[in-house]
Write a structure and sequence with these properties.
This protein is of the alpha+beta class. 28% of the residues lie in helices and 35% in strands. It has two helices and 17 strands. Helix 1 runs antiparallel to helix 2. The structure holds 2-acetamido-2-deoxy-beta-D-glucopyranose (NAG) (4 copies). It is found in: Cell membrane.
Length: 253
């Protein structure tokens, strides 16, 4: 019966190693923008920061823009004077992390831009919008609109703020203000507020236990299979030898 226990350990070890490796998956890097707006105007300055697991300056960071590796290897990537070609999606990775999710940056042309931190929000999150002027020229008498209706009017330019978003705050927003005597409007931006997120899909301990159990059963099963096969084979061999021997015996008579 030794063969089964000789077979089991490697299989079981492999399974434990696989599940342990899965549990200690390296974390994902995170790209953040500073200032936080994902929509900027030409000539704005924005810094992309790659947050890994280390607090120390990491000079082995990889950055991708639109899927192509770019030369910056520092943990922050400065776009000093944004141009249209800086638009697109960014992703980073440190030596201790998996690649981050994609982060979008849009560089727009115009006098006034409605800025947001993101386009899609969850219910209960805060929404902050900023009416931003080209080269930060002074902007007066700013109004914010949703679906064509004025929502807020402020004398000096102040941000538009919703502290607890509901689905009803979804809609098409724009802002308008005076730069000197010029009455300038932004293009509109569709803000989407989604209902509560579905159940989490991260593995629970129940699932881990289930996988381990499945793995163990599989290992026992495999072990049994080989054990049976080997025994059967030796049984057959014994039987054949026995038969040959008997034949020889009978011939010898
Ligand atoms: C990246 O993609 C965006 C959007 O498709 C495009 O506007 C931009 O010019 C691209 N930039 C580069 C350098 O590929
Ligand atoms: C946000 O609004 C919802 C629905 O109106 C309410 O149930 C919830 O308590 C509010 N949350 C906060 C933090 O104010
Ligand atoms: C959203 O709008 C609908 C209809 O306009 C209204 O019945 C509902 O109470 C609103 N919900 C919230 C959270 O304001
Ligand atoms: C800007 O123009 C709109 C019409 O296009 C007008 O209704 C609004 O009052 C003007 N804003 C200011 C601050 O003058």
């Amino acid at each position: 019966c030794g063969s089964m226990w000789q077979l089991l350990p490697p299989t079981a070890l492999l399974l434990v190693a696989v599940s342990a490796g899965w549990q200690s998956d390296p974390p994902k890097a995170v790209v953040s923008l500073d200032p936080p707006w994902y929509r900027v105007l030409e000539r704005d300055s924005v810094t992309l920061k790659c947050q890994g697991t280390s607090i120390l300056e990491d000079n082995s960071v990889q950055w991708w823009h639109n899927g192509s590796l770019i030369s910056s290897q520092s943990s922050s990537y400065l776009i000093g004077m944004a141009r249209a070609k800086d638009s697109g999606v960014y992703r980073c990775k440190t030596h201790l992390t998996k690649p981050s999710d994609l982060v979008r940056l849009e560089v727009h042309v115009g006098w006034v831009l409605l800025q947001a931190v993101q386009q899609v929000f969850q219910e209960g999150e805060k929404i902050q919008l900023q009416c931003h002027s080209w080269k930060d020229k002074p902007l007066h008498k700013v109004s914010y609109f949703r679906n064509g209706r004025a929502k807020q009017f402020s004398h000096p330019n102040r941000n538009f703020y919703i502290s607890n978003a509901t689905r009803n705050d979804s809609g098409s927003y724009f802002c308008r203000g005076l730069i000197g005597k010029r009455n300038e409007s932004s293009t509109s931006l569709n803000i989407i507020v989604q209902g509560p997120a579905g159940p989490s899909i991260s593995p629970s301990w129940h699932q881990v236990f289930f996988y381990l159990l499945t793995g163990l059963l599989f290992a026992v099963d495999t072990g049994l299979y080989f054990f049976m096969q080997r025994n059967l084979r030796s049984l057959m061999e014994d039987w054949r030898n026995h038969k040959v021997k008997r034949n020889q015996d009978s011939q010898g008579k």
